[in-house]
Amino acid sequence: MPEQTSAVVIIGAGPAGLVLGNLLLAAGVGCTVLERQSRAHVEQRARAGFLAANTVRVLTEHGLADGLLKGGQQHDTCAFRTASGEFELQYGTLGRGEVHTVYPQQHLVRDLVAEFLARGGDLRFETAAVAVTGLTGDRPQVTVRAADGGLHRLQCRFVAGCDGRHGIARTAVPAGAARRFRRDHGVSWLALLAAAPQSMAAVAYAVHEDGFAGHMARTPDITRYYLQVPRGEDPADWPDARIWEELRHRMRADRYGPLNEGAVLERRIVDMASDVLDPIQYGRLFLVGDAASLISPSAAKGANLAVMEAETLARAMVPALRGGDEQRLARYSADCLPRIWRAQEFSHWMINLLHGPAGTGDEAVFLRELQRARLESLQTSRRHQDHFAENYVGI
Ligand code: APR
C-alpha cells in the first residue's frame, strides 16, 4: 500500500530541489525531498559558487540568503589574458549593472537544508528514488529505497525531478514524449581546487595557444582553477608540480605576476557537453536544473538556471495545489525553455571565446582568427561589453 505523502515529492537535494522545497514550504505546500546521498556528503560537495543577481534576489525574497549575504563576496570584474595583453571588464558598471556573489555551493546547500528542516520540511537523506510511475494519472507514485534498504512507494500530486545529470527522473519520460537536443563542445577541462588564496581580485580567463586556463575565487583560502586538457586525459597524470607549471605558463605569470600556489585538493575532468530536454515536463513530472538541461561550466550558469526554474515551478505549483488552477503548470516548460536557450547560447559563445582549435591548418587558423576578433570586439566595443555583462550575470 503506498504511503500517502505530501503534495509534492522532490527527487534531489541540490540547488534545484532545495530551493523548490523551501519556496513550496514558505507557501504552505507540503513537500518531501528525497536525497540518495548523506547530509554530510551533500554539504561538503564542492560544485559551483557564482551566484547571479536573480539567484540572490530569489533567495533574499524568500528569507534564504542570510548565509550568502554574510559570507558571500561580490564580484563585478573579470580579466582576459591574451597573447596581445590583458584587459578587464568591470561588468558591474556595464549592461544592467548586475554583479555576481561568490558563495561556495556547498555552503548554500548547507543553508538551504537547515532552513528546510527548520521550516518543518520532510527531507529524507540516504533515500534513493528508484522509479516514478503513474505520471499521466492524478496520483503519481515514487518508489524509494530507504536507508535500511527497504522499498516503499510514495503517492503524491506532483513529482519534481531535481536529481541532476545522472538522475532517474529524466528516464521516466517515455521515448517520444520529449526530445533531447545535445552538443558535445569537444573541449575538456581539468577542474582544480587549490588550498591557496586567490591570485588576483577578479575572475581571470587566460586564452593561450597551448590551451585555456581559468582562475575563480571560492573562499578566502580555496581557489578554483581550470586547465583545458585533451579529451580522455587522466587527472592522475597531473601532479601538483605539473599543474602549477602549466597554470603559470598559460596565465602568463611572468608578465602579470605570480600565482598563490598550494596543495591541489581536487582534480577532476569536466567534458564540455550540453543538452536540453524539450519539453521539461511530462504529465505530473516536472524537471528542474541539470535534470532538465545540462550546461557547460564556461559561464557558471548551471546552479543559476536551477534556481530560476525552481522559482518558476514553485509559482506554478502553488495555485494548482491551492485552487486547482493549473494554467501556469501547463506552461512551465514554455516559460523556462527560452531562458535555458539564452543561457546555452551564451555558454556556447564563451566556449568559442576562450578555446581556440589546436593545429596550424588553414581551418584552425581561420577559427583562431575568429576567436581573436571576438576578443578584440569585447575589448574595444562598449555595446559588445554591455551585451556581455547582461548575459554573463543575467538569467
Ligand atoms: N534519488 C534521490 N536523489 C538523487 C537521485 C535519486 N535517484 N539521483 C540523484 N540524486 C541527487 C544527487 O545526489 C544530488 O544531490 O540529486 C541531487 C542533484 O543535485 P545537482 O547535481 O546539484 O543538480 P541541481 O540541483 O540541478 O543543480 C545543478 O548545480 O551542481 C551545480 O553547477 C552544478 O549545474 C549544476 C547545478
What does this structure look like?
The protein has 395 residues and is of the alpha/beta class. The chain has two domains: 3-75 and 102-182 and 274-347, 3-Layer(bba) Sandwich (FAD/NAD(P)-binding domain); 186-272 and 359-393, D-Amino Acid Oxidase, subunit A, domain 2 (D-Amino Acid Oxidase, Chain A, domain 2, 2-Layer Sandwich), CATH 3.30.9.10. Helices cover 36% and strands 27% of the residues. It has helices spanning 15-26, 39-44, 53-61, 66-71, 105-118, 240-250, 253-256, 302-323, 327-330, 332-354, 362-380, 382-393; strands spanning 3-4, 8-11, 31-34, 50-51, 73-75, 78-82, 85-89, 100-102, 122-124, 128-133, 141-145, 151-155, 158-161, 179-194, 203-206, 213-219, 222-229, 264-278, 281-282, 285-287, 293-294. Strand 6 (78-82) and strand 7 (85-89) form a beta hairpin. It is globular. The protein starts with a strand and ends with a helix. The model has no long low-confidence stretch (mean pLDDT 95).
